[in-house]
TrEMBL record:
GO molecular function, one term: heme binding
Coiled-coil positions: none
Cell membrane recorded as keyword: yes
Residues making up the signal peptide according to the UniProt record: none
Membrane topology qualifier: Multi-pass membrane protein
Single Gene Ontology BP annotation: respiratory electron transport chain
Protein name, entry field: Cytochrome B
């Protein structure tokens, strides 16, 4: 297994990023679902406090993943079709846009942000920045749920290709 990608399969770095982020994103949707379905219960109390810090970690790792993808763009396996290409690109876009609009809302509301105790920005007193709050409130959860639909579609397509007589793409991302 090589560090970099090649045109047959993804390399070590892409795989670690893919599967590591898949786990973090799964956790992120568990916390979102806990808030949506189990407000004011011990389930929400357990999952929800991790939502902002883990969301921020996902953003940082996605920026690294984007840089890595661009560095490897000529080497990686070719997308099986246009739908796969657009689907992958949309997941990148949303995995960056969804946390970014939440951070705008956090900042615009004058609230400080210290994920894992790291000071990212401090809060302020006085008038709130309306457009930043609206950006987050209008788009964060809607785009978040759209992202979940894309992820579910992505996983189903991977298994469907495996089951049908199409060439499987799973060995590109998993196994030798
Ligand atoms: C990739 C990262 C993220 C994903 C996929 C995500 C997803 C979601 C989803 C689906 C909801 C809707 C829950 C509901 O309908 O009740 C939500 C709510 C929320 N998220 Fe995130 N989130 C992410 C990152 C963040 C970050 C970084 C912050 C804070 C800086 C944040 C703050 C919030 C807040 C305050 C809510 C509740 C208000 C609302 O529904 O908009 N999220 N998130
Ligand atoms: C939160 C969960 C997931 C996200 C956000 C995600 C996202 C992506 C993205 C963006 C790619 C393009 C390559 C890259 O830049 O890394 C990719 C490739 C791939 N993913 Fe996922 N993935 C997730 C989970 C899964 C799961 C559970 C499977 C299991 C079947 C899977 C199977 C694959 C395969 C086989 C490829 C290579 C596809 C190809 O080259 O055409 N993914 N994934």
């Amino acid at each position: 297994m090589t560090i970099k990608d090649n045109n047959q399969r993804y390399g070590k770095v892409s795989r670690i990023l893919h599967w590591g982020l898949a786990l973090l994103i799964l956790w992120q949707f568990l916390s979102a679902a806990a808030r949506f379905f189990f407000e004011d219960t011990s389930i929400e109390a357990f999952f929800w406090p991790t939502h902002k810090p883990v969301g921020f970690l996902i953003l940082v790792l996605m920026v690294l993943r984007l840089v890595w993808a661009l560095l490897n763009v000529k080497r990686r396996p070719e997308s099986v079709n246009l739908l796969a290409k657009l689907g992958h690109a949309s997941m990148y876009l949303l995995l960056i846009a969804v946390p970014v609009v939440a951070l705008f809302r956090q900042y615009g509301a004058g609230r400080s942000f210290e994920p894992f105790g790291i000071p990212v920005f401090s809060g302020f007193e006085g008038e709130k920045i309306r457009w930043m709050i609206d950006l987050g409130s209008d788009f964060h959860s809607t785009l978040g749920w759209i992202l979940l639909a894309l992820v579910v579609g992505h996983i189903m397509m991977a298994f469907w290709r495996q089951k049908s007589d199409k060439t499987s793409v799973i060995p590109r991302m998993w196994g030798k």
